[in-house]
Amino acid sequence: MSSTDFKELLKADRDVFLNLGEFGEQHTVEGKEIAAVLDEAVLADSKTAEDLGLTRGDLVLFAKCEDLPAQRTAGESLNVDGRDYLIASWRDDYGIAKIFIFQNLG
After folding, report:
1. pTM
2. Contact between residue 91 and residue 98 where contact means Cβ atoms under 8 Å apart
3. Nearest to 57 by CA among 102, 89, 105
4. What is the pLDDT along the chain (106 residues), one digit of tens a residue?
5. For residue 15, what are the CA distances in angstroms to 49, 53, 66?
6. Which of 16, 54, 65, 86 has CB 3.0 to 4.6 Å from 58, enough for a Cys bridge?
């Protein structure tokens, strides 16, 4: 299998994961409606979440990188569905952004 074939397979998987008929839902990120997965359950199984000190009620946002604003760093804000969150980490995994976010309650 060539690297081009592998990249195409990843893109197809990404499209299935974020498909509104599968796992994806409409969310508004920085005023733009996109297909995304907003998940709290994944935190329970995530070593990264534990390392970042995230707890129940914090979230992970999965979306296509091209649907999001330019990548931001930890501590910057991101508005999701009308609520402001702080970014704990933002990672690009083969075209899908995995963004750990939390609300600043302090």
Report:
1. 0.79
2. yes
3. 102
4. 566 676 676 666 777 777 777 788 999 999 999 999 998 866 666 666 677 676 656 899 999 999 999 999 999 999 999 999 999 999 998 889 999 999 876 5
5. 25, 30, 13
6. 54
